[in-house]
Structures are given as C-alpha cells and as structure tokens.
Amino acid sequence: MLISCPYCGPRDLIEFSYQGDANRTRPDRVSMDVPAWNTYIYDRVNTAGDHAEFWQHSGGCRMYMRVVRSTLTHAITSVEPARAHASSARRAKRTAR
What we know:
Helices cover 25% and strands 34% of the residues. The protein is of the alpha+beta class. The protein has a single domain, classed as Folate-binding fold. The strands form two sheets. It has a four-stranded antiparallel β-sheet.
C-alpha cells in the first residue's frame, strides 16, 4: 500500500505508523465526565468503507496526516496534514456555538 505524504510524495506503508481513528471526538482534557471518557477510549465503530485515520510518516519527514482509506479495498481517497484538519474542526466548532 502506498501513502502519498503531502511533503515527501508517495511512499511505502513501511515508512508510516498508524496513530488511531480520526473519527472520534476527544473530550475536554479537564473533563470529569466518566461516561464520555469511557466512550472515547473503549467504543469503536467497525466501518465497512471509507474510514478516517491518523498516520505519521515516522520513517521520513515525521509529519502527522489524516488519511481516508477504504477498509474494504485499502484504497486511499485523500491525505491531508493533520494540522489542516484540526484547524478546520476548531473553526467549525466555534461557528456552531
């Protein structure tokens, strides 16, 4: 499987480290809401189809990225820096208030 790093270009999977599910929303760090933390840590959705994941180019530029990959075919449909995704998520959160 090839992952196209936004900085280095297409690279083999061996250069990357899986960093987790990018679909979950982390509770506030100071939150004492135990059910919310339990849901964040233990509940997983087993998606058949496109799934957003965080990956790090650990064998290259060390960039964190958000990858949308099909769990059925392993075909990658999009790759973007994780920072770009985080800033757009923060903007959406602010406008929703």
